[in-house]
Amino acid sequence: MGSLSFGSSQTGIGLDIGTEHVRVAQVKQTGSGFVLTGYGRVDVPMGAVADGEIVDSAAVSAAIKELWRVSNVRGKEVSTGVSNQRVIVRLIDLPFMERGELQNAIQYQAQDYIPMAVEESILDFQIIGDYMTPSDEHMMEVLLVAAHREMIGNTVSAVEGAGLKLSRVDVSSFAIVRALMGDSLEVLPESEGEATAIVHVSSGITNIAVVERGIPRFNRISSLAGSTFTQAIANVLNVTFDEAEDLKIRVGLPDIDTGASGDVSGVDPEYVQVVHQSIEREVNKFIAEVRRSLDYYLTQTSQVRTITKILLTGSGAQLRNFDHYLEKGLQAQQVTLGDPLARVQVASSIQQAVHDDRMGCVTAIGLALGGLQS
Ligand SMILES: Nc1ncnc2c1ncn2[C@@H]1O[C@H](COP(=O)(O)OP(=O)(O)OP(=O)(O)O)[C@@H](O)[C@H]1O
Ligand SMILES: [Mg+2]
Fold first, then answer.
1. CB of residue 48 inside a 6 A radius of ligand 1
2. What is the mean pLDDT of residues 344-366?
3. Distance between CA atoms of 172 and 169, rounded to whole angstroms?
4. Between vectors from CA 21 to CA 275 and to CA 233, what angle results, nearest 5°?
5. Ligand 1: which of 20, 51, 276, 312 to mutate, most ligand atoms within 8 Å of CB?
6. Is the dihedral of CA 136, 137, 138, 144 positive or negative?
7. Which domains does the chain have, with CATH numbers?
8. CA–CA separation, 323 vs 230, rounded Å?
9. Model-level pTM?
10. Is 340 a pocket residue for ligand 1 (Cβ < 6 Å)?
11. What is the DSSP letter of 263?
12. pLDDT in tens, 147-178
């Protein structure tokens, strides 16, 4: 549905529902660009969201209500994101056809590509481009998204239960891409065949995406994420999850060249060793998982492709020395922290809130930017 905007500004609200936190971002379009005018984050009760899915809608609604109470966000129409095993993204090649024709055809074609029943899914697609095969067949590339109807229903319930209206549901990784680099081809330095991978690490889920010229072409999720590292420490040291969380953040991984530790004052030196080792073990599994995903992407495509850059986002990516471990383990040319504020200016009233959640805010911002378009 087209939306009306009055005056020179329009606003979008992005709501990011996660395992540990719900976050909201409000973005306003002004003559001089996008301005982040509202931001907030509140805790989600343990177990209300698991594996990226809402398990307890009422608890999530209550957290969202609290979010509206504590943040300066105003408005009731929100865009949210989904990222779990029941939302599937596939890049498929089909014989060329017009958009209207594809709309019908996709209903019949989709089942070949998704592991869920089409009747139980909501389908969406985007035409990415077309090309000629060596034997002169006209083909098209289509990005197919399938989301389980019931899973989307749970999201709608949680949002409506908080007295809000859900105006758009996005794939979370598409929102992350939008916040980091926009939807415009011009902003990207990549040339044909060069791709950027985005690895977003939060609490229960890691999102791995590959983008070429601003267009997401691959998305996979993994359950190896921030809480995996914490749990590993808790198991080995036999401490509580909260204690392990504190150790993870303070100790992290050692310097990859010197083996030196960060701020470990007051931490038993024996603990430091054990923390290093237990995180290292999990991070090595994590690296293997990312590598498998990226290799899969590269072997899927017919053209020669390379991933020249990896951008890390998400609160979990702040793990000390994590970027260096990934760079070495993945033999990537460049692994850097992505900038969630790349496309927005931040209003002064929320500078502190955004700063305190610097790597975690990216999804909500991308969802808000997406909301401006619909
Ligand atoms: N400085 C830090 N170093 C290491 N890990 C950190 C740091 N700060 C936060 N984290 C980790 O980030 C994770 C929380 O991330 P986030 O708040 O993005 O999760 P979420 O969005 O609620 O969950 P999800 O999207 O996975 O459902 C936790 O595992 C936490 O330990
Ligand atoms: Mg998250």
1. no
2. 97
3. 9
4. 10
5. 20
6. negative
7. 10-84+150-188+339-373 (3.30.420.40), 87-147 (3.30.1490.300), 226-330 (3.30.420)
8. 18
9. 0.94
10. no
11. S
12. 999 999 999 999 999 999 999 999 999 999 99
